[in-house]
Amino acid sequence: MEVVVDENELKSVGAQPLTDGRHGLRIHGWEIETRKRSILNSSTLQQWEQKLGTSHLPEMIFGESALILKHLNSGTSINFNAFDALAGWKQEGLPPVEVPAAAKWKFRSKPFQQVILDYDYTFTTPYCGSEPIKINAEDEIEAISKATGSLQWDDCEEHIDMAALAVKEPILFYDEIILYEDELADNGISLLTVKVRVMPSCWFLLLRFWLRVDGVLMRLRDTRMYCGFEDKKCPSILRESCWREATFKALAAIC
Fold first, then answer.
1. 166, 141, 183, 195: which is closest to 32 by C-alpha?
2. Which tens digit of pLDDT belongs to each residue from 78-113?
3. Average pLDDT of 68-75?
4. In 30-81, which ranges are continuous DSSP H helix?
5. How far apart are CA 210 and CA 245, in angstroms?
6. CA distance 232 to 9
7. What are phi and psi of 228, to 5 degrees?
8. Do strands 77-81 and 66-71 pair parallel, antiparallel, or not at all (unpaired)?
9. What family does the entry list (predicted)?
10. Number of C-beta neighbours around residue 249 at 10 A
11. Phi and psi dihedrals of 87, rounded to 5?
């Protein structure tokens, strides 16, 4: 879905497009930027393997793609990127999902190669966002961020009002960024995406990891964030996470 908004309409609600060739919006003290780049080349992929300590990475990694949200007055900043998401995958280290023996051969990279699925080939990640750190200019692949830790996230009774978000309000900016994708050797799909939507009253985003292992398992991990524009000096962000999974067998029993 592509949203095209007239610049005069943006000005009427206190918003303006980002400059310097950046794709995004400035509104009520927030800069919201999306970057869409091509998949990693082989040399950069090798660097990522060394950094992450693995020889297994998704087929398609959009390593320079990102969503960045920055509040200029308070310094609050959150971004979403593939490197940190894969660092979360490596750290969590889930056991591999069992696939039918007849399907294992698809994971071979060479004929007659023995297939040992001793790692989480689904690339399931607990990742829910990052916050920036300074980049070391001498390191070509210094992580552009770190998993959210210094931002103060407190438990609260308040929830994101999904019904209010469904109310008709002009969409000033919308984008979807694919961070990584893998077809699991034709055994399903593993996909991490982030979507952002900006309205006159708020911004809202959805980070989604979606997994389908054909005939075996479906898994969903969602993180939603919402921020209203009421407090321009010190914004509050609501964050909700939801993890779900079910086997094909269990779903068939329900239907």
1. 195
2. 999 999 999 999 999 999 888 765 455 455 555 545
3. 91
4. 42-52
5. 10
6. 21
7. -85, 160
8. antiparallel
9. Belongs to the TIP41 family.
10. 10
11. -65, -40
